[in-house]
Write a structure and sequence with these properties.
Number of domains: 1
Structural class: alpha+beta
GO molecular function: heme binding; iron ion binding; monooxygenase activity; oxidoreductase activity, acting on paired donors, with incorporation or reduction of molecular oxygen
Helix content: 40-55%
Largest sheet: 5 strands, mixed
Number of strands: 12
Pathway: Secondary metabolite biosynthesis
CATH class: Mainly Alpha
CATH architecture: Orthogonal Bundle
Protein name: Cytochrome P450
Keywords: Heme, Iron, Metal-binding, Monooxygenase, Oxidoreductase
Cofactor: heme
Radius of gyration: 23 Å
CATH superfamily: Cytochrome P450
Strand content: 5-15%
């Protein structure tokens, strides 16, 4: 290493340590009045433990001991407010949402992956972009393209039948095919582009896999993350994540340009979305042709977010159906009886109407509650006082004062979606009947988000593609259950918090093999 390079490296490390020391001083007095678990590490705090531990082993235990509102130690003694209180959550995500923005590090990373689009926008800019995109995600728009979900479901069935060949049953990892399906569902329905036929230097599915399945933590990444949050320009330095993100944006950008310049239908989600994007107020930021930079970034963001979340929920729904055969059989019976009575397979409208097919609605609602893709929702705060529904354990306080720059973490999958004090003692069990038997505790109504879960978020940043995702999940699950029996593969799975703030499965004792979700599939 040259003297100049060594000097630059030393300067970066020195600046990083100086900034971290300043943070230590600022954080020392914050949230001291709240209970919370002792820090397992003076350097990593709870951050590394949260990233490496299996899902379901940390947040529930802490909430049981310290209540719904407590503090955690982040890297370098940064203190996080963990908020599992329904009233407090509604305050942060909805009532006073303008006071709570995505943390700087999150916006930096999202900007690296997708550019400055809906994911990174805040305040008036976010509202403007939502207003542009909202009309493309109405129920009618999703109905217009629902035949694509059916086509992709048929394609999946053919793939699985080929895998079965002449065998009665076989075991394989269902995750890759489902991720390919949901990426195609987004690209074909919104942009009339089939990514499975796209030729590129690196397959888009591989790039998404690299980013979303990246291991979450070690001491070095924690240190670098802390420095990057304070000095964003350091992201210009070479790294594997930057290389993947740059290549991903390049490949998806090619699709965006191809889509924009191609011939479009006059109806359907793709036509509406592209027409809306063509009127966005960003004429000064243009790519070659007529595609604006903002439009390209929105297309890239939609492709990523929609495919990743839906694939995970479909995979875990089938996993739970394999573990709960009585639920799967009841669901299959509902679909078959409907088909016999009506003379046709369940359509988009049939599947989306709880009165027509109540059990599949209950199954998917339960999967969305218990198998939420998001581990948590993070926000950085302005000075504020957060009201609470449940008093702080030990002090009885009914509010928490927060200072500008502090971090709020709202556990979703292991938090309010499965809180036993709200949902009952079986909150962590997969039981679709809870949605049918008038067995929802009154306390659930205190979760003011749509559907009484935070799976799609809440407030101004609630998921734009909620209806799209639910329709896709229902149609794919119905297609699979109608043609196959899915069964437990006989291996124990643990779920981990991986890259992209998503939850992915690994085989216990074989974690080094990476993400996989094996199921035994049997032809009916």
């Amino acid at each position: 290493m040259s003297f100049v390079a060594a000097s630059v490296s030393f300067a970066i490390v020195l600046i990083g340590f100086t900034a971290i020391l300043n943070r230590l001083v600022q954080e020392a007095s914050r949230l001291k009045e709240l209970p919370g678990p002792p820090s397992p590490s003076r350097i990593a705090g709870h951050a590394l433990d949260l990233q490496l531990a299996p899902v379901g082993t940390r947040y529930p235990a802490w909430a049981k001991e310290y209540g719904r509102t407590y503090r955690l130690h982040g890297a370098f003694t940064e203190r996080h407010l963990v908020l599992g209180d329904p009233k407090g959550i509604s305050h942060v995500l909805s009532t006073r949402a303008s006071n709570y923005v995505r943390p700087n590090t999150d916006r930096i990373v999202l900007g690296l992956w997708f550019g400055q689009g809906l994911f990174t926008a805040e305040g008036d800019e976010h509202a403007k972009q939502r207003k542009i995109l909202n009309p493309a995600f109405t129920y009618q728009s999703i109905q217009d393209i629902s035949h694509i979900f059916q086509q992709l479901g048929d394609r999946l069935i053919q793939q699985w039948e080929t895998a079965l060949a002449d065998k009665d049953s076989t075991t394989f990892d269902i995750a890759p095919a489902l991720h390919a399906l949901t990426l195609d569902a987004i690209s074909m329905s919104m942009f009339m582009h089939d990514t499975s036929t796209t030729s590129g230097s690196v397959p888009i599915s591989d790039l998404l896999h690299n980013i979303t399945n990246a291991p979450r933590g070690n001491m070095l990444t924690l240190f670098l993350g802390s420095i990057v949050s304070m000095f964003p320009h350091l992201l210009s330095l070479p790294s594997p994540m930057k290389k993947w993100a740059t290549t991903l944006r390049g490949e998806l950008g090619k699709i965006a340009e191809s889509v924009w310049s191609g011939t479009k239908n006059d109806i359907g989600l793709d036509a509406k979305l592209l027409k809306l994007l063509s009127h966005c107020e960003c004429e000064s930021l243009r790519l070659p042709g007529s595609l604006t930079l903002t439009a390209a970034q929105q297309i890239i963001g939609v492709l990523f977010a929609g495919s990743e979340s839906s694939a995970n929920v479909i995979s875990e729904t089938l996993y739970e159906l394999g573990r709960h055969q009585h639920v799967q059989q009841k669901l299959r019976l509902e679909l078959l009886e409907f088909e016999q009575a009506s003379g046709h397979a369940a359509s988009f409208d049939d599947l989306m109407n709880p009165a027509t097919l109540p059990y599949i609605d209950a199954v998917i609602r339960e999967a969305l509650r218990l198998k939420a893709v998001l581990m948590d929702i993070a926000r950085a705060v302005a000075d504020d006082i957060i009201p609470l529904q449940f008093p702080v354990a030990g002090t009885g306080a009914t509010s928490v004062r927060v200072e500008a720059g502090q971090s709020v973490m709202i556990p979703v999958r292991d938090g309010i979606n499965s809180d036993e004090g709200i949902w009952g003692s079986d909150a962590r069990e997969f039981r679709p009947e809870r949605w049918l038997d008038n067995d929802i505790p009154e306390a659930v109504a205190s979760i003011q988000a749509q559907g009484h879960t935070l799976t799609f978020g809440h407030g101004p940043k609630v998921c734009l593609g909620r209806t799209f995702a639910i329709a896709e999940i229902k149609m794919v699950v119905a297609a699979v259950v109608r043609r196959f029996s899915v069964e437990d593969a006989g291996v124990a799975l643990d779920f981990y918090h991986l890259g992209g703030n998503t939850v992915k499965p690994k085989i216990r004792g074989r974690e080094e093999e990476g993400v996989q979700l094996p199921l035994r599939v049997r032809s009916l």
